[in-house]
């Protein structure tokens, strides 16, 4: 089991699509790991997406 003291603190991220700020732990305990959708990792010029934009991107991908 991983000791929480060994984990880096969550980083503040601005969504690459809408600019909404949120926290990212960059681990399997991050909120995005709870989502049913899986998308490719962001490109170099992008960072993570907020929950709403992640869901919209997944819906757009599924409708292709």
From TrEMBL:
Source species: Bradyrhizobium erythrophlei
Protein's UniProt name: Cysteine-rich CWC
Top-level taxonomic group: Bacteria
